[in-house]
Write a structure and sequence with these properties.
Helices cover 13% and strands 30% of the residues. It has 142 residues and is an alpha+beta fold. It has one domain: Carboxypeptidase-like, regulatory domain (Immunoglobulin-like), CATH 2.60.40. Strands 4-3-7-8 form a four-stranded antiparallel beta sheet. A hairpin with a 7-residue loop joins β3 and β4.
């Protein structure tokens, strides 16, 4: 009898939603001013005004698109105002194939921080699609 009761209670709890954990689909594209896309890296959204901070992260694909996940992969983000950071990564092998040749990061370094990126987006309690416009890194004289 207690096993049946436990199963009923667990299934009832599974149907309940925690309003502080409700996420909504978020996807998008990261692009440069010339229309090319950032082809690798990640995007991170941090909700404003919530302690402890809650973030949603998504990997940027080769086509420049991303899908966010907060509590699980691709489950979306919490509704509300978010600060955004964008990170670029380079896939390099052992270095033996290109000694001393690490590609320069094309993304402006200011996007690596929520404080300096200057990007704020509002996630609605619905499906969300964003285009995140970023700038190239400043050219280094050489």
């Amino acid at each position: 009898m207690s096993l049946v009761f436990s199963a009923v209670v667990l299934s009832a709890l599974a149907g309940c939603s925690d309003p502080g954990r409700d996420t909504y689909p978020v996807s998008g594209l990261v692009r440069f001013p010339d229309g090319t896309v950032l082809r690798d890296g990640s995007v991170e959204f941090e909700i404003v005004g919530r302690k402890p901070a809650v973030t949603a992260t998504g990997q940027i694909g080769p086509d420049g698109t991303f899908t966010l996940g907060t509590f699980a992969a691709d489950d979306g983000a919490l509704a509300g105002k978010h600060r955004v950071a964008v990170f670029s990564s380079h896939r390099i092998g052992t270095g033996a194939e290109r000694p001393g040749m690490i590609p320069e990061n094309r993304l402006h370094p200011r996007y690596r921080s929520f404080d300096s990126s200057g990007i704020t987006l509002e996630v609605q309690p619905a499906e969300n699609q964003f285009v995140i416009d970023v700038e190239f890194a400043p050219e280094t004289g050489g």
